[in-house]
């Protein structure tokens, strides 16, 4: 037998409330009240769990899903950022370019052949690294070395295009790569962090991530985005290893370079 037959007075009360709701002047507010009323009736009629259990469960769910709300540091960062908005020039001239918004020199003329040969030189396989998930990458410091070799130290730089945006897990900011006084590329960097204390380090990682993305437009290490090169490189220089996590004993498979040993927190299994 259904719950409605057992409790006819509840059904009558619900229908009366619905009829009154249809005549109310504010439809959306009434619909919200009606939904809350019916939900409360359904919970009280069908749930066998004590109220204390329900309150504890709701409280735990709110804590896990609203980390930024309960953390005052993250809440303030999310509302106002890091207050590092680039300063805007009042009277921008050819000598004083506002790189927060300017596209000065973009595609004006190619760089000299000497610089182009350095930028587009084939990447040395010995400098390429591989992540445990199989993604190839070039350490960001090597991008800086290539830029210094092509344009000279001080001949290039990263200009922030906006304020740093901080979410509960990530820092992101847009940067412009400027070489010899010309805009080359604009990219948004991002970096994850695990606690508010790690935000300063994440901002530096965000800057390096933006640099790597900008350098793709200059042709630096372009092979690392070529699927055929990736397959050949992995077949020749890397291997897959079955490993076990030292702490939680979780077993998985990771990629490493041939000749390299598995490092902590993993240990290789046979």
UniProtKB/TrEMBL annotation:
What GO CC annotations are associated with the protein? mitochondrial chromosome
The GO terms describing molecular function are: single-stranded DNA binding
- List keywords of the entry alphabetically: DNA damage, DNA repair, DNA-binding, Mitochondrion, Mitochondrion nucleoid, Transit peptide
GO biological-process terms attached to the record: interstrand cross-link repair; recombinational repair
Family matches, as Pfam families: Mgm101p (PF06420)
* InterPro entries found in the cross-reference section: Mgm101
Location of the region described as Disordered in the Swiss-Prot/TrEMBL record: 45-87
Cellular location(s): Mitochondrion matrix, Mitochondrion nucleoid
PANTHER family in the cross-refs: MITOCHONDRIAL GENOME MAINTENANCE PROTEIN MGM101
Q: Which family does it belong to?
A: Belongs to the MGM101 family.
What name does UniProt use for this protein? Mitochondrial genome maintenance protein MGM101
